[in-house]
FAD-binding PCMH-type domain-containing protein (Solanum verrucosum), 418 residues
Amino acid sequence: MNILFSFILLFSASCVVSYTIQDQFYQCITLHSDRSIPFSTAFFTPTSNATSFNSVLKSTAQNLRCLTPSQQKPLLIFTALIESHIQAAVICAKELKVQLRVRSGGHDYEGISYTSEMKRSVSFILLDLAKLRAIKVDIEDNSAWVQAGATIGEVYYRIAEKSKTHGYPAGLCTSLGIGGHITGGAYGKTDRLLDVMNHSFPELGLTQKDCIEMSWIQSVIYIAGYPSNIKPEFLLQGKSLFPTVNFKAKSDFLRVPVPVTGLQGMWEKFLQDDSPMMIWNPYGGMMGKISESSIPFPHRKGVICKIQYLTAWTDGDKKTADKHINWIRGLYEYMGTFVSKFPREAYVNYRDLDLGMNRNANSNFLEASVWGKKYYKNNYDRLVLVKTEVDPDNFFWHEQSLPILPFKVGQDGKSLIH
């Protein structure tokens, strides 16, 4: 009888702890933000309404590989409805000592904005910004204010709505969230391709008749790969026409040309996969004149191009996933001879956890530099100093977040222990 009573007592206690975090977060949010907001439409838990929870979790997730049953999911999803909800979420997560992850468009290649590779003991709350997508375009000032939950497709549309002659150089995938796109040092296209190709490759003999003339907003639809009958208004949906799949990607930066023999070997490796993709984005021009230390994104001067390797599959079977992942790792290993070195550079918006990751919030400067130097080169050191200054408690952390130093550098240049 005593054994049975002890079992029931322990089981009940564990349930209380699990529900308490959710309840306390809800109560805390109501204290720190506008009470008139119907919070029943902003909170989703796997226990109270599993269907709605899963629907919201998957709503902007772009990589099915990150949504397998074994992947750790959020304890709670809070969909901010007004800007003050974001501040309240940070305050409440700090008070409850629970990790907070923030999702803008859900395009993180490893899904770390809405899932976790951490130990199961590290629970987290997902702050979803999907409802915060207001866009204000000021043509006279050549600027726009955009909330972080909007997609770049929506931004494109609102600019075109205001002007026939303005555009914005962002990504090709129109469902990208603007928040992660910009903070990662994203890139886009506003090239005068005909002039460039005629100048660089006159032997191709390109002429005006080889080009299709269209408006800028129509070119957005065209370059995204959508059918010609798709209207620009489709961009306001913030969705992609293409199905969501499993995928794995990696990246490199090229600083010297790959020899012909290297390219031949690359193609042999490339064609071993049944759904390979590789994109080479040319650099140079104005980018080549900008020092790598001028802004956090360092891959500028001296870079010939950026390479993205990608493989995708629809089968959720682990054996299939392993086959594709092993292939891309093999191709990446082969290309190591030809790409940048010391460090082997990588693009942070093509996040790759193969490069290494934090296992908890206590990763140190040297451990995180394994991938930090690849993403940011020497700017990593400066970014860690900034992180230590603005987030001394390391509240905002994830598998590849910047660490904090055990000290701060004072105005006199001396170290101050935390």
In short: The longest strand covers residues 246-254. The longest helix spans residues 2-32.
